[in-house]
Amino acid sequence: MRMSASLPLAVLALAFVSAAQPQPAQAQAVAQTPPMGWNSWNYFFDKVDDKGVRAAADQLVATGMKDAGYVYVNIDDTWEGQRDANGVLHTNSKFPDMKALADYVHSKGLKIGIYSSPGPKTCGGYEGSLGHEVQDAQLYASWGIDYLKYDLCSFIPAVMEKQAPNDKAAQMRLMHAAYDKMDKALKATGRPIVFSLCQYGWDSPWEWAPALGGNLWRTTGDIEPKWDRIYAILSQQAGLESYAGPGHWNDPDMLEVGNGKLTPAENRAHFSMWAMLAAPLLAGNDLPNMKPETKAILTNRDVIAIDQDSMGKQGARIYSDGEVEVWARHLTGGAMAVAVLNAGSDRYSTHPFHLNLGKLGLSGPQKAKDLWVGKQMELTDNMPLEIASHDVLMVRIDAPK
Ligand code: GLA
Question: Counting CB atoms within 10 angstroms of each CB, which of 159, 214, 223, 232 has the fewest?
């Protein structure tokens, strides 16, 4: 609400009284770097249960992923049961005791996340938070929840389309208000809870989500473990770089690394580009049955360090040549990350891609580290690069010239 000079005295008096009331302790800042962890949806979908979440937590520790920075264990849709006569939401039979599960996850030095919708139902048709926002936020806090993904879903037909038929702008205002309401409910608990907006990029959330307390906001519809979908999402991130920063991130959706039929190159390229984007790194694979090559990608410390760079400056697409794209990201201490992505087919020595350093603001040979080979190399102007289909060259330049 905008303050107006003609605000009635009663309202001013009310504002004064509420300012004098004890306020919940200022929640400590969360998501100062893009959140890292695991989420149940991309592999388990509705098959997630208490046992599977405990197993994921165990594996985050056993595989070294926790030490590499993955701390959130996020339960997505399908945990919800029914509300009782007092409106209190209960878990369904897959999650017999959410508090005990949260305690277990915390005992491993990890954090736990949960999922809901501002609508009456979630996307999976389970109980949503409409009309119970404060009650649900208090419930999450009482369980020790550290992260909430709040997914628009049935709020669209049940509230937006019903209350404002044929008025898109009014529908969007209803959507903003719904996210604002849950943000206030979460903040009122006094518990630091990461607030993740999931509304598929509608109405440019990067413009308004930070002001409503969003720590991250989905920028697109759902990801799938297919190169074309991953690349389509990547393409939609170009131009959004100025909106991200510590505490507020563009979310191009959770990782598919290790899922479906993605090739090693595609897994590597997907992970590299999400790091260039300062995207949340939420692994979405079957951790207990992870292949060594998947683990090697997810735990590449050099690539993770790009994603987690404390300056929080998202990378940008600098130029492209056919289907080869060059992205760059500025890092703390004047360092720079560069990713050369071949989104199309192979480019062989007959017609390799030639790297133009000038377009990156660089001049002369640059000492760099190839983050997938793990070795120092030299970048020179116009150097020919052979990059396989859907693969990437990702380097870190510590002292760009
Ligand atoms: C939507 C979201 C997904 C997932 C499902 C769960 O599709 O975008 O990430 O949370 O709902 O039902």
Answer: 232
